[in-house]
Design brief:
single chain, 333 residues, alpha+beta, 5-stranded antiparallel β-sheet, 3 domains, 4-stranded antiparallel β-sheet, 9 helices, D-amino Acid Aminotransferase, Chain A, domain 1
């Protein structure tokens, strides 16, 4: 059996499951959504070191985790803070953290059974951290923007060479936010030194600043095993997406297949090998002199809009990767 962990309403989960089923293999979605976990039965049984098992029942379907031969985790657990207005009382927090620990126990068993795409959920989650991959010597040919993450006012002000210089401010990690009840996110934007003159010293979280790269286009990479699907994203004609193409002004942001240079492809595969990632989305940009910059690595990144825009068979590649993993001899760790 192949299992996908995430929100069953996520079209990525649905498309991958449907493709696996179409290729003649069983696949089920195990929901990590809050509404589903309310009606989920979870059993972990351990008998004096002789036998142990985990079973999970959702919607009348029971899955024994030892029967899962390959698994993809799209969303390890639902976010505690969602776009829905609700009171986070002590009971809900206790319920959330207990479910989180229970799901992490499942992922630990799947990791030990060598069933997980990306090998380890904690490792994949850690590799979303910008400090982790910016500070590591991962690459020779890819450049990285000058970066500062700080809540120290003087450090932030010194990052600017002068009062007229614009730099990029962005979040360390995307999170679910809402505006007028609708889901939204904080996009990267330009700031200047004067914007930080009133920055406080008390109770401020770290801010991420990066030098502004005069880019000619962005590249979205989706990596599945040793396959790299590259999409060129040209947002130079979009007022909404010029700084951050995630504004998704698709009418003014052409998406086209991209032929990645061989040395950059090798570099990307080396990065994924170092980080132990079978799957990831990676964002690059190219400046006016042809230099490639590494901007972001996401082991849980979305890809369907790229697949639809350029016809890249990413879902098929993920499905076949999981099937191959499911049928190969299991090597427990």
């Amino acid at each position: 059996m192949i299992a996908i962990f995430g929100n069953p309403k996520d079209p990525h989960a649905q498309e991958i499951r449907n493709k696996i089923n179409a290729l003649g293999h069983d696949c089920t979605i195990i929901s990590t959504a809050r509404c589903s976990l309310k009606d989920t039965n979870f059993i972990f049984s351990h008998n004096h070191g002789q036998t142990s098992f985990i079973k999970i029942n959702q919607g009348g379907t029971t899955v024994c985790i030892d029967d899962v031969m390959a698994a993809l985790v799209l969303q390890p657990i639902f976010p505690l803070f969602s776009t829905t207005t609700q009171e986070f009382n002590q009971e809900l927090k206790f319920w959330f953290f207990t479910w989180r620990e229970s799901m992490e126990g499942i992922y630990a068993v799947l990791e030990r059974n060598s069933a997980l795409l990306n090998h380890s959920v904690p490792n994949a989650m850690a590799n979303q951290n910008k400090i982790r991959y910016i500070s590591a010597p991962l690459t020779r040919f890819l450049k990285q923007p000058k970066t500062l993450i700080s809540n120290n006012r003087e450090s932030l002000l010194k990052f600017f060479e002068n009062s007229h210089q614009s730099v990029i401010i962005k979040t360390l990690h995307q999170m679910q936010l809402s505006l007028d009840g609708e889901p939204t996110m904080l996009l990267a934007s330009l700031v200047r030194r004067d914007d930080f003159l009133g920055f406080g010293q008390a109770n401020e979280c770290p801010v991420l600043l990066q030098e502004y790269i005069e880019k000619t286009y962005d590249i979205r990479l989706t990596i599945v095993g040793n396959q790299i699907f590259a999409c060129k994203i040209d947002a130079t004609q979009s007022d909404a997406g010029r700084i951050d193409w995630r504004a998704y002004d698709l009418a003014n942001t052409p998406h086209t297949p991209y032929d990645l240079p061989e040395k950059i492809s090798e570099e990307i595969n080396n990065i994924c090998t170092q980080l132990k990632l079978d799957y990831a989305t990676i964002d690059l940009c190219v400046n006016r002199t042809g230099d490639y910059y590494l901007l972001d690595i996401n082991p849980f990144g979305k890809y369907l809009w790229v697949e639809h825009a350029i016809g890249a068979p990413i879902t098929d590649a993920i499905a076949r990767f999981l099937i191959k993993k499911a049928i190969q001899p299991r090597q427990c760790m």
